[in-house]
Design brief:
heterodimer; A: alpha+beta; 5-stranded antiparallel beta sheet; 4 helices; 34% helix; B: Transcription Regulator spoIIAA; 6-stranded mixed beta sheet
């Protein structure tokens, strides 16, 4: 997969635009260290993050802007997503979501899926007032999100 | 008779078994429609659901949640929800969440029909 930087301005189309980007990049045609499952897990993690932005983020007065940067580093896919929403406390949310996960849950799994897929997960405010999510997806992992069945 | 909705098509196999063709995506954008489609089928007597994922490029947490909802509905009726022709993006979600422990998987819709009908 080649390094890609992209800017999204429309919350109604951003999900389809991100998936279209991945459809254009064959999984490991250029780099055999990147497994097809890593690409799929990256796509899932990005989908869950952006779905969360689309459904729950508060952009208030500013025009929504989401920046995506994806590159491969050795056997990992490294993603950076920046946005100009109000942001939230991801760590606290993840703790609460894990504690509140219901039996065969209908909601509350999205960011836990992201967490399960990702290594080196970071989220915080950066100097220009934007929010930055950074994570890696590695090929040899077999991540698991424990759901009460 | 085939009933076509905006995203999903439903094909009855017999009185209590239907095939739901998921199409390109089951995610937060159409999960409510999926639930509504399945509820209509349950009210009409369907108990067993074969979900055809052959064309599916997106299954997200909300989509999976809507399948859990269906499972909760049909389980007390001794119904089943099974997956057929699972695409790689769907398999990644199944593997991540270990939901193969809940939903039986079949390589094709025909194989699922043979098992259920």
């Amino acid at each position: 997969m080649e390094s890609v930087k992209y800017r999204f301005l429309n919350l109604n189309t951003v999900i389809d635009e991100v998936h279209s980007l991945f459809e254009q990049w064959p999984s490991n045609e250029h780099d055999p260290r990147i497994s097809p499952d890593s690409v799929q897990r990256t796509k899932l993690a990005l989908h869950e993050w952006i779905a969360n932005l689309v459904q729950h983020a508060s952009f208030e007065c500013s025009h929504p802007e989401i920046m995506l940067d994806v590159e491969t580093v050795e056997d990992a896919i490294v993603c950076v997503v920046e946005d100009n929403s109000q942001g939230f406390d991801l760590d606290a949310h993840l703790v609460m979501a894990a504690e509140d996960l219901a039996h065969l849950p209908e909601r509350g799994m999205g960011l836990l899926m992201l967490q399960a897929c990702a290594t080196d997960l970071f989220y915080g405010r950066i100097s220009d007032g934007r929010n930055r999510l950074k994570f890696s997806v590695k090929g040899e992992d077999d991540p698991c999100l424990t759901i009460p069945f | 008779m085939q009933v076509t909705t905006m995203t999903f098509s439903v094909e009855p196999c017999n009185q209590d078994t239907v095939i739901v063709r998921i199409g390109k995506a089951l995610d937060f954008r159409n999960a409510a429609e999926f639930k509504s489609t399945c509820q209509t089928q349950v009210r009409s007597g369907a108990r067993n659901f074969i979900l055809d994922f052959s064309e599916t490029g997106i299954l997200d947490s909300t989509g999976l949640g809507s399948i859990f909802s269906l499972y909760r509905q049909v389980s007390p009726l001794e119904g089943q929800v099974v997956f057929a022709s699972v695409s790689r993006p769907v398999q990644v979600v199944v593997q991540l969440t270990r939901t193969y422990k809940v939903f039986r998987q079949f390589p094709s819709v025909d194989a699922a029909k043979d098992a259920l009908v």
